[in-house]
Design goal:
It is a single chain. The chain is mainly alpha-helical and 141 residues long. The chain is 64% helix and 0% strand.
């Protein structure tokens, strides 16, 4: 008895692992999806709990995502990419990380969050703060 077309097609597809063995996979070293999520989350200055709240999941679920315990559905990958300000291609390791000028180079989370708050202030207040910071730095030089 002939097999239905859908089963025949499904049986002839290459294994999923071999799809990721191409040149794109090697360009991102060995960083996994979970590691990329964790790295981008930290660069954004978010905790696992904060990311979990935005995703409407528990913090342990985010931990499992970052440790590659849970396989992520496509819609969750899209949601995480949006929250972290990355493309899905970047998140999946198909594209090199985009250059970020959003403060990702600031390692101190508290300082980064304060900078985000300062950006929300009126221009005049921002300028006053910058003058104060510049005066303080010039005294320490």
């Amino acid at each position: 008895m002939p097999q239905p077309a859908i089963l025949k097609t499904a049986l002839t597809l290459p294994p999923i692992a071999s799809l990721w063995d191409g040149p794109m996979a090697k360009s991102q070293d060995t960083e996994t999806l979970g590691h990329r999520i964790a790295r981008l989350r930290r660069e954004k200055g978010l905790t696992q709990a904060e990311l979990a709240q935005q995703l409407e999941v528990s913090q342990p679920a985010v931990s499992d995502y970052e440790n590659d315990v849970i396989r992520l559905p496509a819609d969750v990958v899209v949601q995480i990419a949006g929250i972290l300000g990355a493309s899905t291609d970047e998140l999946l390791g198909m594209k090199a990380p985009a250059a970020r000028s959003n403060g990702a180079s600031i390692k101190n989370r508290r300082l980064y969050r304060r900078m985000q708050e300062i950006e929300k202030l009126p221009r005049r207040d921002q300028e006053a703060l910058l003058r104060t910071i510049e005066a303080f730095i010039s005294k320490t030089d």
